[in-house]
Amino acid sequence: MTLFDMKGKVAVITGSTRGIGRAIAERMAEHGAKVVISSRKADVCEQVATEINASHGEGTAVAIAANISSKEDLQSLVDESNRSFGKIDVLVCNAASNPHYGPLATISDDQFRKILDNNIVANNWLISMVIPQMIERKDGSIIIVSSVGGLKGSTILGAYAISKAADMQLARNLACEYGQHNIRVNCIAPGLIKTDFAKALWDNPDNLKARTARSPLLRIGIPDEIAGAAVLMGSKAGNFMTGQTIVIDGGATIS
Protein backbone atom coordinates (compact mmCIF):
# COMPACT_ATOMS: atom_id res chain seq x y z
CA MET A 1 0.00 0.00 0.00
CA THR A 2 1.24 3.45 -0.89
CA LEU A 3 -0.18 6.96 -0.68
CA PHE A 4 -0.94 6.75 -4.40
CA ASP A 5 -2.71 3.37 -4.29
CA MET A 6 -6.15 3.56 -5.91
CA LYS A 7 -7.22 -0.06 -5.38
CA GLY A 8 -10.92 -0.27 -4.59
CA LYS A 9 -11.68 3.08 -6.18
CA VAL A 10 -13.84 3.71 -9.24
CA ALA A 11 -12.97 6.67 -11.45
CA VAL A 12 -15.15 8.17 -14.19
CA ILE A 13 -13.11 10.21 -16.68
CA THR A 14 -14.81 12.25 -19.41
CA GLY A 15 -12.99 12.79 -22.69
CA SER A 16 -10.84 9.76 -21.94
CA THR A 17 -10.35 8.20 -25.37
CA ARG A 18 -7.32 10.32 -26.18
CA GLY A 19 -4.95 12.97 -24.89
CA ILE A 20 -4.92 13.99 -21.25
CA GLY A 21 -8.11 12.09 -20.38
CA ARG A 22 -6.77 8.81 -21.70
CA ALA A 23 -3.45 9.30 -19.91
CA ILE A 24 -5.31 9.89 -16.63
CA ALA A 25 -7.42 6.76 -17.17
CA GLU A 26 -4.38 4.63 -17.93
CA ARG A 27 -2.42 5.85 -14.90
CA MET A 28 -5.36 5.47 -12.54
CA ALA A 29 -5.86 1.92 -13.81
CA GLU A 30 -2.14 1.29 -13.32
CA HIS A 31 -2.54 2.39 -9.70
CA GLY A 32 -5.39 -0.05 -9.16
CA ALA A 33 -8.57 1.89 -9.94
CA LYS A 34 -11.51 0.70 -11.99
CA VAL A 35 -12.05 3.25 -14.74
CA VAL A 36 -14.97 4.36 -16.89
CA ILE A 37 -13.91 5.45 -20.37
CA SER A 38 -16.22 8.05 -21.84
CA SER A 39 -16.41 10.28 -24.90
CA ARG A 40 -18.96 10.89 -27.64
CA LYS A 41 -18.14 7.87 -29.84
CA ALA A 42 -19.06 4.45 -28.43
CA ASP A 43 -16.74 2.47 -30.71
CA VAL A 44 -13.68 4.51 -29.70
CA CYS A 45 -14.61 4.17 -26.02
CA GLU A 46 -14.82 0.39 -26.45
CA GLN A 47 -11.44 0.27 -28.16
CA VAL A 48 -9.70 2.18 -25.36
CA ALA A 49 -11.43 0.14 -22.63
CA THR A 50 -10.35 -3.07 -24.37
CA GLU A 51 -6.75 -1.89 -24.50
CA ILE A 52 -6.74 -0.92 -20.81
CA ASN A 53 -8.27 -4.29 -19.87
CA ALA A 54 -5.58 -6.05 -21.89
CA SER A 55 -2.89 -4.18 -19.96
CA HIS A 56 -4.38 -4.22 -16.44
CA GLY A 57 -6.78 -7.16 -16.34
CA GLU A 58 -10.30 -7.84 -17.56
CA GLY A 59 -12.88 -5.80 -15.71
CA THR A 60 -10.57 -2.85 -15.08
CA ALA A 61 -12.30 -0.59 -17.60
CA VAL A 62 -15.76 -0.18 -19.09
CA ALA A 63 -16.85 2.02 -21.98
CA ILE A 64 -19.84 4.34 -21.59
CA ALA A 65 -20.33 6.89 -24.35
CA ALA A 66 -21.75 10.30 -23.46
CA ASN A 67 -21.95 13.75 -24.99
CA ILE A 68 -21.23 16.34 -22.30
CA SER A 69 -23.64 18.79 -23.94
CA SER A 70 -26.54 16.47 -23.09
CA LYS A 71 -27.80 16.40 -19.50
CA GLU A 72 -29.54 13.11 -20.28
CA ASP A 73 -26.29 11.58 -21.55
CA LEU A 74 -24.47 12.64 -18.41
CA GLN A 75 -27.14 11.16 -16.15
CA SER A 76 -26.91 7.93 -18.17
CA LEU A 77 -23.12 7.99 -17.72
CA VAL A 78 -23.55 8.17 -13.95
CA ASP A 79 -26.29 5.52 -13.87
CA GLU A 80 -24.39 3.09 -16.10
CA SER A 81 -21.15 3.63 -14.14
CA ASN A 82 -22.99 2.78 -10.92
CA ARG A 83 -24.49 -0.31 -12.56
CA SER A 84 -21.09 -1.44 -13.81
CA PHE A 85 -18.98 -0.84 -10.70
CA GLY A 86 -21.45 -0.07 -7.91
CA LYS A 87 -20.17 3.42 -7.10
CA ILE A 88 -18.12 6.41 -8.22
CA ASP A 89 -15.25 7.49 -5.96
CA VAL A 90 -13.41 9.82 -8.33
CA LEU A 91 -14.85 12.04 -11.05
CA VAL A 92 -12.54 13.64 -13.61
CA CYS A 93 -14.22 16.37 -15.67
CA ASN A 94 -11.79 16.50 -18.57
CA ALA A 95 -13.92 16.83 -21.72
CA ALA A 96 -14.16 20.36 -23.10
CA SER A 97 -14.91 22.36 -26.25
CA ASN A 98 -13.21 25.22 -28.05
CA PRO A 99 -14.78 25.93 -31.46
CA HIS A 100 -13.27 29.42 -31.83
CA TYR A 101 -9.74 30.79 -32.19
CA GLY A 102 -9.55 34.56 -32.45
CA PRO A 103 -10.63 37.82 -30.78
CA LEU A 104 -13.78 37.84 -28.67
CA ALA A 105 -15.29 40.37 -31.06
CA THR A 106 -15.37 37.69 -33.78
CA ILE A 107 -16.96 34.86 -31.80
CA SER A 108 -20.55 33.95 -32.60
CA ASP A 109 -23.16 33.72 -29.86
CA ASP A 110 -23.56 30.00 -30.50
CA GLN A 111 -19.82 29.39 -30.21
CA PHE A 112 -19.59 31.40 -26.99
CA ARG A 113 -22.54 29.55 -25.45
CA LYS A 114 -21.13 26.16 -26.50
CA ILE A 115 -17.84 26.91 -24.75
CA LEU A 116 -19.52 28.09 -21.55
CA ASP A 117 -22.10 25.29 -21.56
CA ASN A 118 -19.66 22.44 -22.23
CA ASN A 119 -16.76 23.70 -20.13
CA ILE A 120 -18.63 25.03 -17.09
CA VAL A 121 -22.33 24.16 -16.98
CA ALA A 122 -21.83 20.51 -18.00
CA ASN A 123 -19.18 20.10 -15.31
CA ASN A 124 -21.61 21.37 -12.68
CA TRP A 125 -24.33 19.07 -14.01
CA LEU A 126 -22.12 16.00 -13.81
CA ILE A 127 -20.68 16.88 -10.41
CA SER A 128 -24.19 17.43 -9.02
CA MET A 129 -25.21 13.98 -10.28
CA VAL A 130 -22.28 12.24 -8.59
CA ILE A 131 -22.18 14.22 -5.33
CA PRO A 132 -25.12 12.52 -3.49
CA GLN A 133 -23.42 9.13 -3.26
CA MET A 134 -20.15 10.76 -2.19
CA ILE A 135 -22.00 12.62 0.58
CA GLU A 136 -23.56 9.34 1.70
CA ARG A 137 -20.13 7.66 1.93
CA LYS A 138 -18.46 10.78 3.36
CA ASP A 139 -15.70 10.47 0.76
CA GLY A 140 -14.97 11.53 -2.79
CA SER A 141 -12.60 13.34 -5.10
CA ILE A 142 -13.62 15.58 -7.99
CA ILE A 143 -10.99 16.74 -10.47
CA ILE A 144 -11.62 19.40 -13.10
CA VAL A 145 -9.10 19.72 -15.92
CA SER A 146 -8.81 23.47 -16.40
CA SER A 147 -5.98 25.30 -18.22
CA VAL A 148 -3.31 27.93 -17.69
CA GLY A 149 -5.46 29.89 -20.11
CA GLY A 150 -7.62 30.62 -17.10
CA LEU A 151 -4.73 32.42 -15.41
CA LYS A 152 -3.79 34.91 -18.12
CA GLY A 153 -5.23 36.94 -20.96
CA SER A 154 -5.29 35.77 -24.55
CA THR A 155 -5.98 37.39 -27.92
CA ILE A 156 -7.08 34.11 -29.53
CA LEU A 157 -8.47 31.94 -26.71
CA GLY A 158 -10.63 34.48 -24.92
CA ALA A 159 -13.86 32.53 -24.40
CA TYR A 160 -12.02 29.29 -23.65
CA ALA A 161 -9.81 31.11 -21.13
CA ILE A 162 -12.88 32.62 -19.48
CA SER A 163 -14.43 29.16 -19.13
CA LYS A 164 -11.25 27.71 -17.64
CA ALA A 165 -10.97 30.53 -15.11
CA ALA A 166 -14.58 29.78 -14.16
CA ASP A 167 -13.69 26.10 -13.66
CA MET A 168 -11.11 27.12 -11.06
CA GLN A 169 -13.74 29.14 -9.22
CA LEU A 170 -16.22 26.28 -9.57
CA ALA A 171 -13.72 24.04 -7.80
CA ARG A 172 -13.23 26.58 -5.01
CA ASN A 173 -16.96 27.04 -4.50
CA LEU A 174 -17.72 23.32 -4.48
CA ALA A 175 -14.77 22.63 -2.18
CA CYS A 176 -16.38 24.99 0.33
CA GLU A 177 -19.83 23.47 -0.13
CA TYR A 178 -18.81 19.82 0.16
CA GLY A 179 -15.76 19.86 2.39
CA GLN A 180 -17.94 19.09 5.41
CA HIS A 181 -18.69 15.74 3.76
CA ASN A 182 -15.00 14.92 3.20
CA ILE A 183 -15.32 15.56 -0.54
CA ARG A 184 -12.36 17.22 -2.22
CA VAL A 185 -12.64 19.32 -5.39
CA ASN A 186 -9.51 20.42 -7.25
CA CYS A 187 -8.31 21.60 -10.66
CA ILE A 188 -5.36 20.75 -12.86
CA ALA A 189 -4.24 23.58 -15.15
CA PRO A 190 -2.10 22.17 -17.97
CA GLY A 191 0.01 24.40 -20.14
CA LEU A 192 0.68 23.62 -23.80
CA ILE A 193 0.35 19.84 -24.17
CA LYS A 194 0.78 17.84 -27.37
CA THR A 195 -2.82 16.77 -27.89
CA ASP A 196 -5.17 16.85 -30.87
CA PHE A 197 -7.30 19.33 -28.92
CA ALA A 198 -4.44 21.85 -28.81
CA LYS A 199 -3.05 21.07 -32.26
CA ALA A 200 -3.75 24.56 -33.60
CA LEU A 201 -1.27 25.92 -31.02
CA TRP A 202 1.65 23.55 -31.66
CA ASP A 203 1.32 22.07 -35.16
CA ASN A 204 3.22 24.92 -36.83
CA PRO A 205 6.96 24.65 -35.96
CA ASP A 206 7.47 28.43 -35.84
CA ASN A 207 4.44 28.86 -33.61
CA LEU A 208 5.62 26.07 -31.32
CA LYS A 209 9.10 27.59 -31.06
CA ALA A 210 7.65 30.98 -30.15
CA ARG A 211 5.34 29.47 -27.55
CA THR A 212 8.08 27.45 -25.83
CA ALA A 213 10.97 29.94 -26.12
CA ARG A 214 10.28 31.57 -22.75
CA SER A 215 9.29 28.40 -20.92
CA PRO A 216 12.03 27.25 -18.51
CA LEU A 217 11.83 23.69 -19.86
CA LEU A 218 11.83 25.00 -23.46
CA ARG A 219 9.43 22.34 -24.74
CA ILE A 220 5.84 21.25 -25.10
CA GLY A 221 4.37 18.80 -22.59
CA ILE A 222 2.86 15.37 -23.23
CA PRO A 223 -0.42 14.01 -21.81
CA ASP A 224 1.24 11.54 -19.46
CA GLU A 225 2.94 14.45 -17.67
CA ILE A 226 -0.49 15.61 -16.49
CA ALA A 227 -1.75 12.23 -15.29
CA GLY A 228 0.34 12.06 -12.12
CA ALA A 229 -1.42 15.07 -10.63
CA ALA A 230 -4.78 13.37 -11.18
CA VAL A 231 -3.54 10.25 -9.38
CA LEU A 232 -2.37 12.48 -6.52
CA MET A 233 -5.79 14.14 -6.26
CA GLY A 234 -7.69 10.85 -6.57
CA SER A 235 -5.67 8.90 -4.00
CA LYS A 236 -4.89 9.19 -0.29
CA ALA A 237 -1.93 11.38 -1.20
CA GLY A 238 -4.40 14.19 -1.89
CA ASN A 239 -6.63 13.75 1.15
CA PHE A 240 -5.88 17.20 2.60
CA MET A 241 -5.96 19.10 -0.69
CA THR A 242 -9.12 20.85 -1.79
CA GLY A 243 -10.11 23.95 -3.73
CA GLN A 244 -6.67 24.11 -5.33
CA THR A 245 -5.37 24.45 -8.87
CA ILE A 246 -2.12 22.69 -9.74
CA VAL A 247 -0.36 24.30 -12.71
CA ILE A 248 1.63 21.92 -14.93
CA ASP A 249 3.08 23.97 -17.75
CA GLY A 250 6.86 23.53 -17.88
CA GLY A 251 7.16 26.78 -15.98
CA ALA A 252 5.62 28.92 -18.73
CA THR A 253 3.49 31.01 -16.38
CA ILE A 254 6.48 32.02 -14.21
CA SER A 255 8.73 33.30 -16.97
Would you spell out the secondary-structure blueprint of this structure?
Elements: E1 10-14, H1 19-30, E2 34-38, H2 42-56, E3 61-63, H3 71-85, E4 90-93, H4 109-137, E5 140-145, H5 158-178, E6 183-190, H6 199-202, H7 205-212, H8 224-234, E7 245-248
Parallel strand pairs: 1-2, 1-4, 2-3, 4-5, 5-6, 6-7
Helix pairs in contact: 1-8, 3-4, 4-5
Report on this model:
The chain is α/β, with parallel strands linked by helices and 255 residues long. The protein has a single domain, classed as Rossmann fold (3-Layer(aba) Sandwich), CATH 3.40.50.720. The protein is built from eight helices and seven strands. Strands 3-2-1-4-5-6-7 form a seven-stranded parallel sheet, with helices on both faces. α1 (19-30) links the parallel β1 (10-14) and β2 (34-38).
At CATH's second level, what is the architecture?
Answer: 3-Layer(aba) Sandwich
Overall number of structural domains: 1
Largest sheet: 7 strands, parallel
Q: What does the overall shape look like?
A: globular
Please state the average pLDDT score.
Answer: 95
Alpha-beta content class: alpha/beta
Q: So how many helices?
A: 8
- Under CATH, the topology can be stated as Rossmann fold
Q: What is the strand content?
A: 5-15%
- Distance between termini? 38 Å
**Briefly, what CATH class?**
Alpha Beta
CATH superfamily: NAD(P)-binding Rossmann-like Domain
Radius of gyration: 17 Å
Q: Element order, helices and strands?
A: EHEHEHEHEHEHHHE
- Sequence of strands across the biggest β-sheet: 3-2-1-4-5-6-7
Low-confidence stretches at least 5 residues in length (pLDDT < 50)?
none
Number of strands: 7
Helix content: 40-55%
